[in-house]
Amino acid sequence: MDTRLEALSRAVGDHLQSRGWRLATAESCTGGWVAEVVTATAGSSAWFDCGFITYSNDAKCALLGVSPMTLARHGAVSEQTTAAMVRGTLERAEADLALSISGVAGPTGGSPEKPVGTVCFGWGRAGETPGTATCHFSGDRESVRYQAVVFALEELLRRYA
């Protein structure tokens, strides 16, 4: 793991542990990369509960309870879907905080409305309305996914400082 991801993971762990919070993740285009980064940190079992990899729409519905209507109306790559992923994660995990990611990493799959590099995010605490964001990253598939992992963790720290 590179030093940037390692430092982010440690910072997230320190932050969560100091508050007695546990994190759970719901990932699509990053395929569990956030969960891999945080579990690479020694002691993460004190602050990380679980990760859901819900790559398909069916998995988002079955594992996280995302409404098929939300997916039909807004698509998998939408802030509405990532908010629903956060809510579903918090309902199913033993966590105080959740983050979600869904995007178009490329090289194909983009559209004029959601070009390659479009990634939507969600963050939330139990009992609160999830916050969301959309970013447009450049680069190849690996680069888009990497930037999404970094943004998700940096934004978690910013939003819950």
Ordered list of secondary-structure elements with their pairings:
Blueprint (H helix, E strand, L loop, with lengths): L2 H17 L3 E5 L5 H7 L8 E6 L3 H8 L3 H7 L4 H14 L4 E7 L14 E8 L5 E6 L4 H19 L2
Parallel strand pairs: 1-2, 1-3
Antiparallel strand pairs: 3-4, 4-5
Helix pairs in contact: 1-6
CATH topology: Maf protein
Mean pLDDT: 97
Distance N terminus to C terminus? 25 Å
Structural class, please? Answer: alpha/beta
Q: What is the CATH H-level superfamily?
A: CinA-like
As a whole number of angstroms, the C-alpha radius of gyration is: 15 Å
Q: What's the arrangement of strands in the largest beta sheet?
A: 2-1-3-4-5
Report the total helices: 6
| Biggest sheet overview | 5 strands, mixed
CATH class equals Alpha Beta
One letter per element, helices H and strands E, the order comes to HEHEHHHEEEH
Share of helical residues: 40-55%
The CATH architecture would be: Alpha-Beta Complex
Shape: globular
Strand content: 15-25%
Write a structural description.
The chain has one domain: Alpha-Beta Complex (Maf protein), CATH 3.90.950.20. Helices cover 45% and strands 20% of the residues. It has six helices and five strands; from the N terminus they run αβαβαααβββα. The chain has a five-stranded mixed sheet, with helices on both faces. Strand 1, helix 2 and strand 2 form a beta-alpha-beta unit.
Task: Write a brief caption for the model.
45% of the residues lie in helices and 20% in strands.
